[in-house]
Amino acid sequence: xxxxxxxxxxxxxxxxxxxxxxxxxxxxxxxxxxxxxxxxxxxxxxxxxxxxxxxxxxxxxxxxxxxxxxxxxxxxxxxxxxxxxxxxxxxxxxxxxxxxxxxxxxxxxxxxxxxxxxxxxxxxxxxxxxxxxxxxxxxxxxxxxxxxxxxxxxxxxxxxxxxxxxxxxxxxxxxxxxxxxxxxxxxxxxxxxxxxxxxxxxxxxxxxxxxxxxxxxxxxxxxxxxxxxxxxxxxxxxxxxxxxxxxxxxxxxxxxxxxxxxxxxxxxxxxxxxxxxxxxxxxxxxxxxxxxxxxx
Length: 296
Fold this sequence. Notes:
Elements: H1 2-15, H2 18-25, H3 29-43, E1 48-51, E2 54-57, H4 59-84, E3 92-97, H5 104-113, E4 118-123, H6 126-134, E5 140-143, E6 152-166, E7 177-178, E8 187-190, H7 196-208, E9 214-217, H8 221-229, E10 235-238, E11 249-253, E12 259-267, H9 274-286, E13 292-294
Parallel strand pairs: 3-4, 3-5, 7-11, 8-9
Antiparallel strand pairs: 1-2, 5-12, 6-10, 6-11, 6-12, 6-13
Helix pairs in contact: 1-2, 1-3, 2-3, 5-9
């Protein structure tokens, strides 16, 4: 079949290497290489200029990419229609989110009502889950990024102020509130680039002209919480994202830090789809903040 050969070429271009393409497709590197070579041999074309380990896409390869883009979208739309026509008695629903804190109650309620629908959850930072949505790997994305894109419909579903999170024995744990200036004497744990929590943290520090004593970058919220427990430092995070029962202490910041918003996105072209409308109705019943549709 032609599709696996095209997929090997397409992902190699998108990911930037055969290694990354193999990881994305879940196959071996030699398989990716063999499929690209098979595609080139079948049509007598050259899709890459090969310079040692470097691959540069040719004009023919570049011209092919938009067609594969459309083919990929068509396959995704077919998949969605077929899953959506199962009357919610079967099929699957895929959601990408920065964390479970804002949508987990909705997922649990949706699961109770439609137990035969398979639910898949992809966790990543704000940019990663939006990429998953536009690449048709998920049906809904929950992200802190506010994106102006006419192809997307978004709803604001949460609003949280940043709080200082410390372990119980920390000297600041007994305070009702603190000023950000206290971070000048602290090691601050930061999320990775692309995280809206990091963006909000850096904006707050810049606004107050506060420079922490030291910075440690850690690539996930859960790892940061564990690092706080181990005494490696403290962190700023939205109040609603501090895990309950985690033996961590949240301290309010005065004056207040900027709010971090959480948004739910889906493709505008699928707004009327049964899976989308049903999940949105369940969401409206399970979150405390009224869902606010935001114009892009």
